[in-house]
Write a structure and sequence with these properties.
alpha+beta
């Protein structure tokens, strides 16, 4: 039982450090991170963010949408559906990976293609 308690204590001590690996991004940081960049998501899905505000999402079937930064969030809309969806964004401190967090808590992570 004592080993179990020490194991739990060790996990609790490590957990805050692990949580600190992701840092919330500000609006200007989001824009700088995405503007004219390409991200690769799981499954080799690619998304290109153009300065014009257009974005190309390619999962084998290219889809054009629009992106913008509103406050401290990344926002996108995909015609013909219409309506904007906004996401909080975080950057991983050690590898620069980006993650998008929806209002429901769904997380999508991407790496730069370059």
């Amino acid at each position: 039982m004592r080993r179990f308690a020490w194991g739990i204590a060790a996990l609790l001590a490590i957990s805050p450090a692990m949580a600190e690996e992701w840092t919330a991004m500000t609006g200007p940081e989001i824009e700088a991170a995405l503007d004219e960049r390409t991200l690769i998501y799981e499954g080799n899905i690619k998304q290109i963010f153009y300065k014009s505000g257009k974005t190309l999402y390619d999962n084998g079937r290219p889809s054009w949408g629009n992106w913008a930064v509103r406050g401290d969030q990344y926002c996108s809309e995909w015609p013909p559906a219409g309506g904007w969806a906004c996401y909080d964004m975080d950057r991983h401190s050690s590898d620069g990976k980006l993650r998008f967090v929806s209002e429901t808590g769904h997380v999508t992570e991407g790496n730069y293609s370059e």
